[in-house]
Specification:
- This protein is of the alpha/beta class and 1023 residues long.
- It contains 38 helices and 24 strands.
- The strands form 5 sheets. Strands 3-2-1-4-7-16-15-14-10-8-9 form an 11-stranded mixed beta sheet, sandwiched between helices.
- Helix 22 packs across helix 24, helix 26 packs across helix 27 and helix 31 packs parallel to helix 33.
């Protein structure tokens, strides 16, 4: 049980309060720095008594009373800096048998002269070094270990000794070492600095033991003293090969006091040697032999210290200086959760997976009931193997279609920079092709027997290891690794954290694990509930509760496996929330709504909004309520610290929350993403909302509030912006079949028209948009104008420029004179379309004027020039300017558009960026960018991928001849990886017969307004 727990690390980062030169004197102020930016002061008094005590420690075998007095002095200095809390944690860990590392990092050289291993632990008064499993390691800030050699070296030891400062027990030390090292040990007698440098150059040694006396802060060698700077220069060429340097300074046969080697040890440490062991005082002969004997079995540095301190003279003042290894090239990964520090056991399963990974000739599958810890086991295996793999890719494989999960790998961890317009299947294909050999693909929660198979053949042939987790027993062709409930010893270790319990509580803990079926998830939740309570408390509560109606519904639910006790535990955990406490009420509603967001990490803003809609809570209570759920184990945190919920807890919360919570979630999601309006910048930034929208949409029913259709509409827009046009069309059709309210039906039809236009069916798009223009009329003139403008785009796509101009004129009339943001945006998009119409008709001057006005209106509406829609108007203004014969100005305009789009979209392969680059490349020298234009057979869509008023930059119909100018490609030629192929415009179709009275009314209104304006103008002119 002890070996299963991670070592406990207690950090002590000390720095001088004020920089000083030379050795301190009197009371000196220091600071303790923490990772959380806390700074706590402390003081150490370098008075005469302290200096005398430190000097007395230089003698071999100083009395225990002196060691205790120095240890008390060190502890008193650290008390004001929070050491008592660390001490309590330390004692609990030692009692549980855990390994403990006291990591003392100091940027003041004098602190390395203090014997920190002697610091006393109350109330027993034992020194740190005497506690089992405790290691005090010192290090200088920012020191990192030297990079290792290209190939690992076999362990080899050089023993160099010199009696220049007095006799040394070299024979006893050599005898203690030779039995273990044998031929891997070399001896350098009568060592001098030159001889040592020559011997090190002649062989790649991994361990060096220097046996000599200290002399004035230097090492006494034959031929003269070796000061710290010379030692550093001598060892520097061997930083990559030396793992351990150990000093043994002693008094020899005469037992003369040696001197501290702190300066030498610090100089070697700052070179980046992995570990340096040195006595902070003199070692006796027996102490030197004990240190050498501990080094003999080639132990790790911390174990060498422990073994030496158990020697005949207990050299407690040995110091260990450790340089952390340099950052290693670990695998790129998208692991969703940080490493679980409470992970226990599973050694057999991990060994089986390690053996499989060495030869992954078929997929491996972790098979077990829900809650047994399959996902945690897969995570632990992945975290352990990061340094040995090229890439670790994690996919949520729930559902029959893996396309979406595999497509997401293109962004993380592969970072392929594919454009958002790329079709999901092409993104998935590109991701599978880009996974390098030696990668690990983890498919979590495979719940369909045939889900992964279409992808596996190629992955296996590319030497990609595929690991699944699943509750299914019918997965064929896999190397099965069964994951059962935890063995009782491991379950107890997880429940108690390795703490020693009195016999009664130990028995209660055992019964509690039995009651929970030793299920890993259940025991983890119980552990959080028992942070401040004994196991008997939770056991009594579980036994006292009778069967509740909810249990009767949930116990037969296959999502909870065969362990209804898991549901009871979730319910008992939720019972800790007091209905009379506002924070607990907020936590209760957060739990209720949290289950309706799906398995992805919970988006915090809509999660809190949904809870407010459900219970009207204070925002501060909601933040505290989220912490309550984290403490109860009902919510976890992912790698980025975002709240996340286990799918079994989510299923429990959904069954508990019922309809009001679901409606609140749907409304919050619709408000969250729908609040973006039609702003392309925000829609691009919120693509992460799509999994949650999909989860809500999948639960849609024929009845329900209008917010459900808002969710469907926003989901359709997100699918469109991702390039999944057919899926967007499917969502619109499904939602329309549920008989939405007229206004929602109009918005869905408008989105359907956008999709139909993108797919090349402009006749159908025009039909959908005509109907939509009538249905959205109750939403106000801006929505009607936006729909009419899109209808004009569809008419232009059909080649009917007259009808297109009529629709655009209607849209402009509806937003004329309005100064609100949405009206300005709609006006800017409509001016953009008017410019396109004028260009198509050959009037470049009018086109440039309209596009310039569109750019100015965009800037006024969005408050910045770094905006997608503004940049697209700039691009077309640049194209028209070039066609008008002004390539210099066109180059400046197109360059601004290119830089803006690259900054917002990130990839030159995005259709909008590619079109702008091609327009720049088409400019004549010296204004052209000299970028190669892709071959014309790569015919691709030149459009604006967005879901707002300017969401369709249509295909250009044949344009009449205009003024001469540089030839600009009518279609942008972009790489085929985008996965969007726009067919040629269909031949003009006859005008459909359906023309609504409302549309006719809008046309009449435009005519009347035009006549009134003309009359007023004539009257003013006559006056």
């Amino acid at each position: 049980m002890v070996g299963m727990l991670e070592p406990l690390c207690i950090s002590l980062h000390l720095a001088p309060a004020t920089p000083s030169a030379g050795l301190p004197s009197g009371e000196t102020a220091y600071l303790r720095l923490s990772d959380d930016a806390r700074v706590r002061p402390l003081r150490f008094c370098w008075d005469r008594a302290a200096l005398e005590e430190l000097a007395a420690l230089q003698r071999p075998d100083p009395p225990g009373e002196l060691r205790r007095r120095v240890g008390d002095r060190l502890r008193s200095a650290l008390d004001p800096a929070g050491w008592p809390a660390d001490e309590a944690t330390l004692k609990d860990a030692v009692a549980a048998g855990r390994t403990v590392i006291i990591d003392l990092m100091a940027s003041a050289p004098e602190l390395y002269a203090l014997p920190w291993p002697l610091m006393t632990v109350l109330p027993e008064g034992r020194p740190l070094a005497a506690l089992p499993g405790v290691t005090v390691q010192l290090r200088w800030p920012d020191v990192r270990g030297a990079p290792p050699p290209p190939a690992p070296l076999s362990p080899s030891l050089l023993l160099a000794w010199s009696a220049a400062g007095g006799g040394v027990p070299h024979e006893a030390v050599q005898q203690a070492l030779s039995g273990h090292w044998g031929a891997a040990m070399a001896v350098l007698p009568g060592a001098s600095a030159g001889a040592l440098a020559e011997r090190l150059a002649g062989g790649a040694f991994t361990h060096l033991l220097l046996l000599a006396h200290g002399e004035g802060g230097a090492l006494a060698l034959d031929g003269g003293a070796l000061p710290p700077d010379v030692l550093a220069e001598l060892l520097s060429p061997h930083r990559a090969t030396l793992d351990l340097l150990a000093f043994a300074a002693c008094g020899g046969a005469s037992q003369r006091p040696g001197s501290a080697l702190g300066s030498l040890a610090l100089a070697a440490h700052r070179l980046g040697l992995r570990a340096v062991i040195a006595p902070m005082g003199a070692l006796s002969v027996q102490g030197a032999v004990a240190l050498s004997a501990a080094l003999a079995p080639r132990l790790a540095p911390a174990r060498v210290l422990g073994a030496a301190r158990r020697g005949p003279t207990r050299p407690d003042t040995l110091a260990l200086l450790v340089a952390p290894p340099p950052p290693q090239d670990v695998a790129a990964h998208n692991l969703p959760y940080p490493r679980n520090r409470d992970f226990v056991g599973r050694s057999a399963e991990l060994e089986a997976l390690t053996a499989w990974l060495a030869r992954p000739d078929r997929p491996a599958a972790l098979i077990g009931l829900g809650g047994t810890g399959k996902t945690q086991l897969a995570l632990e295996f992945a975290w352990r193997r990061l340094e040995a793999l090229r890439t670790v890719a994690w996919v949520d494989a729930s559902g029959a279609d893996l396309t979406l999960g595999l497509a997401a790998l293109a962004d993380a961890p592969l970072r392929l920079d594919l454009p958002p317009a790329a079709d999901a299947r092409l993104r998935a294909e590109a991701a599978c092709n880009a996974l390098p050999a030696g990668s690990l693909l983890i498919l979590d929660n495979v719940d369909h027997p045939a889900a992964p198979w279409p992808w596996l053949t190629r992955l296996e042939s590319s030497r990609i290891a595929v690991l699944m987790t699943s509750r299914r027993e019918d997965l064929d062709g896999v190397q099965r690794v069964d994951v059962d409930v935890l063995p009782r010893a491991h379950a107890l270790a997880l429940l108690t954290g390795g703490r020693d319990l009195d016999p009664a509580e130990a028995e209660a803990a055992d019964q509690l694990c039995a009651r929970l079926g030793d299920l890993a998830l259940a025991v983890s939740v119980a552990r959080r509930m028992l942070r401040h309570r004994p196991p008997s408390w939770l056991l009594e509560r579980l036994e006292r509760r009778g069967t509740l109606p909810f249990f009767e519904r949930a116990e037969g639910d296959p999502r909870f496996g065969k362990h209804p006790s898991l549901v009871r535990l979730f319910e008992e955990s939720a019972r800790q929330l007091d209905p009379g406490d506002p924070v607990d009420r907020a936590a209760t509603d957060l739990l209720a709504v949290g289950g309706f967001f799906g398995a992805a990490p919970l988006p915090e803003a809509p999660l809190l909004d949904a809870a407010v809609r459900l219970g009207g809570h204070d925002p501060l209570d909601l933040e505290d309520g989220l912490d309550r759920l984290l403490n109860l184990g009902l919510v976890d945190a992912d790698e980025q610290g975002r709240p996340a919920m286990h799918r079994l807890v989510a299923a429990f919360a959904r069954a508990r929350g019922q309809d009001p919570a679901q409606h609140a979630v749907e409304a919050a999601l619709a408000a969250w993403v729908g609040g973006t309006g039609t702003d392309a910048n925000r829609l691009i930034a919120l693509r992460g909302a799509r999994p949650h929208l999909q989860a809500v949409h999948d639960r849609l029913g024929a009845e329900g509030p209008p917010e459900r259709f808002d969710v469907s509409l926003v989901l359709a827009r997100h699918l469109y912006i991702e390039g999944r046009v057919e899926d967007s069309q499917r969502i619109c059709a499904q939602a329309s079949a549920l008989s939405p309210p007229p206004e929602a039906a109009g918005l869905l039809l408008r989105q359907l028209g956008v999709v139909q236009h993108t797919l090349g069916d402009d006749a159908a798009a025009a039909q959908s948009l005509r109907v939509a223009s009538a249905l959205v009329e109750p939403l106000g003139p801006v929505e009607v104008a936006g729909t009419l403008r899109l209808l004009g785009v569809a008419e232009r796509g059909r080649g009917d420029l007259t009808a297109a101009r009529y629709r655009v004129g209607q849209a402009l009339a509806l937003v004329s004179g309005r100064r609100d943001t949405e009206a300005l945006r709609c006006r800017a998009a409509t001016l953009h379309e008017l410019g396109q119409l004028n260009r198509a008709e050959g009037d470049l001057a009018a086109a440039a004027r309209d596009l310039q006005e569109a750019v100015a209106t965009w800037a006024e509406a969005v408050g910045t020039r770094r905006h997608v829609e503004l940049a697209m108007s700039l691009r077309w203004l640049g194209v028209v300017t070039a066609e008008s014969g002004d390539p210099a100005r066109a180059s400046a305009i197109l360059t601004e558009a290119r830089d803006t789009l690259l900054g917002l979209l990130g990839s030159p392969e995005h259709p909008m960026v590619a079109a702008t680059l091609n327009a720049l490349a088409a400019l004549p020298p010296p204004w052209g960018s000299n970028l190669p234009i892709p071959p014309p057979e790569q015919r691709e869509l030149d459009r604006f991928v967005s879901v707002g008023p300017a969401d369709m930059e249509a295909r250009q119909p044949p344009r009449p001849s205009g003024p001469p100018g540089p030839s600009i490609p009518e279609r942008s030629m972009i790489p085929a990886v985008t996965g969007v192929d726009m067919p040629h415009p269909p031949p003009p179709a006859p005008e459909p017969a359906l023309l609504h009275m409302e549309t006719r009314w809008h046309g009449a209104l435009v005519l009347v307004l035009a006549l009134v304006v003309a009359g007023v103008a004539l009257a003013l002119w006559l006056r």
